[in-house]
C-alpha cells in the first residue's frame, strides 16, 4: 500500500496531467481517470515512465456508475485516499437563445453533478485519511468564470459558480473530519481547451499548467490548521476575459 494516494479526474492532459505528475513526484500512488481511453493510456504511460505508480480508468465521468468504479478501483489498489482532484470538465459556448439541451446537460453533469457524486463515493476514504493525519484534501477545478459570469459561456459560468459554492459548503461540513477543500479559479490556462481564444490571448500570455500544479503542491504541504478555500489565477493587470466578439465563436 502507498503511504499516500490520490485520484485525479480529467487527467489525460492539461491541468489534470500536470497535477498527476506533481503528486507522483511527491510520492503519491495515482488513480487517473478521463473519458477517452487512448489519451488516458498515453498519459498513464507517461506517468509510469516518470517512475510513478498509476492505475487508470476510462469512462464517462458524468455517469454515476463510472464514478463509483473509479473510487472502487482506487480503494482496491491503494486502500487509502488522501487527495481527490475533481478536475474533469467541459466548456461549451452558446448564446442563451440558442442553448442546446444536450450541451447544457453535459456541462451540468460533468462540471457539477459529478463532483457531488465523487464526494459521496470518496468521503469514507477521505474521512479515514483525515482521522489519521487531519490533512485530507479535495481540490475542485472551478474557473475565473466561477467568480464573474461570462456571456456566451453562461452555462459553464453557472456550473463553475456552483463548484465554488459547493467547496465553501464542504469546508464547513467536513472540517471536523480533517478534510480540507480548495476551489481553483484560473483564467485562461494554456491547454487545448483554450485554443478557441488564442487569437485574442496568445498562449505565451496564459497561465501555465505548471502554475496550477505548483499551487496544489503548496496545498498538500500546508499544516492541518491552514485551510485555503479558493485560489484565483489572473493575467497581469487583472486579466479580464475578452469579449465574445473578440474570440472565434
Automatic annotation (TrEMBL):
This is NAD(P)-dependent oxidoreductase. GO terms for biological process: fatty acid elongation. One of its GO terms (molecular function) is oxidoreductase activity, acting on the CH-OH group of donors, NAD or NADP as acceptor. It holds the Pfam family adh_short. Belongs to the short-chain dehydrogenases/reductases (SDR) family. Gene3D superfamilies: NAD(P)-binding Rossmann-like Domain. It comes from the Bacteria. SUPFAM superfamilies: NAD(P)-binding Rossmann-fold domains (SSF51735).
